[in-house]
């Protein structure tokens, strides 16, 4: 088989970011994203700093709230409610994962739907599942935007998603179903994972397990989306059988941040 098409997100994210910057500049105020970080996890700190930098680069304001690692659910919820009531804040991002003592669902659900630009609340998930207005979970939305850009057909296609997280696998399944794909969601309890992945015309690896998906688990000619962190959930040999594949880094990651900024401006425009 010839080399697969590389589904790069870098160029598309740059286009989306340029459009976002133009929309932000057209507003009579500065669209502002508030980031909330609990604790000092190095990875989370790095991601928040990167998102703040991207805001500055594209004409958005940023506000950061850093809470100690022993913050309680009630304390975190109070902060999120305060940000939700602040008219100068248009979007709120609660960086995850959160410390073990935090009730994540209670925290995410404290973010008002109109300011939930990361699409993590129960209301945002319901809106995505029912096709109602609302901000979509950024990584799934970025994946679909990337597939559309490369003219990957979704309607009627068999899609397998490996991973069922509340911020990726589950909302992506809902969004793909809304686009008329036939979706299978696999997880840690799935029996014979390879039997499911080999049926997929589009295979999305989102389990957070590096190298989980190998060549023998991929249907020849499938489109493979690697939503894992570096080095990725898809082993290098999978490229030998795929017709198209997202790189790690440079595939899904840039699209996630671009969608976050775009949805922050969406929220500001709706004020």
UniProtKB/TrEMBL annotation:
E.C. number: 1.5.1.5, 3.5.4.9
Gene3D superfamilies: Leucine Dehydrogenase, chain A, domain 1, NAD(P)-binding Rossmann-like Domain
Functional pathway: One-carbon metabolism; tetrahydrofolate interconversion
Function of the molecule: Catalyzes the oxidation of 5,10-methylenetetrahydrofolate to 5,10-methenyltetrahydrofolate and then the hydrolysis of 5,10-methenyltetrahydrofolate to 10-formyltetrahydrofolate.
Binding site for NADP(+): 163-165
Protein species of origin: Tsukamurella paurometabola
Catalytic activity: (6R)-5,10-methylene-5,6,7,8-tetrahydrofolate + NADP(+) = (6R)-5,10-methenyltetrahydrofolate + NADPH; (6R)-5,10-methenyltetrahydrofolate + H2O = (6R)-10-formyltetrahydrofolate + H(+)
Database matches in CDD domains: NAD_bind_m-THF_DH_Cyclohyd (cd01080)
UniProt keywords, alphabetically: Amino-acid biosynthesis, Histidine biosynthesis, Hydrolase, Methionine biosynthesis, Multifunctional enzyme, NADP, One-carbon metabolism, Oxidoreductase, Purine biosynthesis
Residue ranges constituting the Tetrahydrofolate dehydrogenase/cyclohydrolase catalytic domain according to the UniProt record: 8-118
Assembly and oligomerization: Homodimer.
Database matches in PROSITE patterns: THF_DHG_CYH_2 (PS00767)
PANTHER family per UniProt: C-1-TETRAHYDROFOLATE SYNTHASE, CYTOPLASMIC, C-1-TETRAHYDROFOLATE SYNTHASE, CYTOPLASMIC-RELATED
Record-stated family: Belongs to the tetrahydrofolate dehydrogenase/cyclohydrolase family.
Domain Tetrahydrofolate dehydrogenase/cyclohydrolase NAD(P)-binding: 137-269
Protein name: Bifunctional protein FolD
Record flagged with keyword NADP: yes
Superkingdom of the organism of origin: Bacteria
